[in-house]
Amino acid sequence: MRTLTHTLRGAVLNRLDRAVSRVAVREHRLIGTAMLRIVIGVGTVMYCLADYGSRQFFWGPNSYNAPAEAAKSIPHLGFSLFLWSNSQLWFELVFHATILVAVAFTIFGGRALTLVMAVFMWSLYYRNQDILEGGNNLVEILVIFLVFTVSNAYFAPGAKRRRERLRTDERPTISTATHNLAAYLIVFQTAVLYLTSGYWKIAGKVWQDGVAMYYISRASGFQMFSAYAHWMNNAYLGTAICYFTIFIELAFPFAILSSRAWVRKSVTVSVELLHLGIMVFMGLVCFGLLMIGADCACLRDEDYRSLWARARRLSTATAGRLQWSVRPAPEEQHA
Amino acid sequence: MTEIPDKRIPAAVPWRVRAFVVAAILPVALFTAACLVYNAPASPAQIRLAGSVSDVMDPYFSQDWQLFAPTPGTSNDLLYLEVTLRQAGATKVLQTEPLEIEGAIDRTPRSMRLNPTKLPGVILAFQENAANYTQLAGQIQANYPPSQRAAQMKALLKNFDPTFRELQRFLSVRAASLYPDARIIAVRGTFKEQAIVPFSERYADPAPKEPITGVLQTAWMAYVPGVAD
Hints:
- The complex is a heterodimer of chains A (about 325) and B (about 230).
- Chain A is built from 17 helices and no strands.
- Chain A has helices at about 1-25, 30-50, 55-60, 65-70, 90-110, 110-125, 135-145, 160-170, 175-200, 205-210, 210-215, 225-230, 235-255, 260-280, 285-295, 300-325, 330-335.
- The termini of chain A are far apart.
């Protein structure tokens, strides 16, 4: 009986250790979280600079959105550093600190800087909620999870050294487990967004009828190019884009779970192209950028490595062909 | 026969790591479940759980992804500005003709396509609030007896007071930029909408002209000087 208990305990512990090891031995999605970091930083800088000249109007102490009114619209437990004082100096200090922190966060990353970034980003968004585009809602959540990740193992000063240290340490650690659980939450939250968004679209009549793009292209606040409205007159093109959007949004959560790399990569790239289209044709640049950042976090490190290898092969082949095409003809060489 | 050790799994996981992972998985699982329920379409089960789920999600994880799947509007909004003012050196008070200001604001992002301004968002927020106010005011008229309507309307106006104060300041800035040399006294906004030509009539010749319908007209609001200075 004692031997049986001992064996059972051993088996349970063995299983637990296997599960714990999967979470705590090696950091996953290091490239994706680094890309998300860069996109959030760049997106925040662009958000501030887009209306830098009108910063008094949007966020200043004499804004049309008066600080007292803005404070009333902040939910319970919400905060904004901008509303701590109504002085012009404080506003300029916090606004420019937001830009500087975003630049530092883009370059360096790291947990402490991510926390500071989260505080400034939340403050900026809560100062004026009229002008938010929707992408802010996702990054407000993702930046909390990002605090717990190693977001500077790529594309940051000292990243190579940091990666080597992570690779050499094969012991299960709390830090690694924290990173992986936070990375899971980032991917999960993004997947829920697409699933919900796809669900609401498929339940909407104009999306079912394939005419949603026609009406979107005619919304006066989102018309960046007249050609866009002209193209959406075409019933085939408009319907195809409507159905494609619904399909990839509903497919996204399942695709990122797929063991087939080409499924993960093709659906993620499709979603990114969708957001690129929104940036170009609807002018929602910060929104599109932040969404692309969230999509980036959903690909695995090996996906990026294979995409990088393919891009290099393609560039080598293209360079080879270009060299071939500019090489003089044999007759000319002879002459 | 000797067992080949699995190199991916270290010989022993420290107890503190085991304990941490088990403890950390609990809030992660809680968030996972709460997030799914929070975003689920309204159903009897979802409604029953909504209160507890909101305790977990609000305010830092509150989310609304219906924004990402809008049923696109089938009309475009218009905002007209009227101003009462005194021209420099004149004593007579003039009232300007209603001037549509939203079209010009909606076109501003095109001047910087790489990183467009967020200005149209301000008008969009006002339009949404105006539509909400009109809808709620209509419900009061339809559902309350005449004796209670005035009190209900007063309460509604109080709720929307911050929005109208914002609008007052916003229209003051626009008026000041439109009539820089005049002494502005008051501003008034009128929200209207114009239906988009239906998809089925997009090639009709002559092109159909959709009617403009009124949504809400504000009272005259005193000009607020010094906004955005």
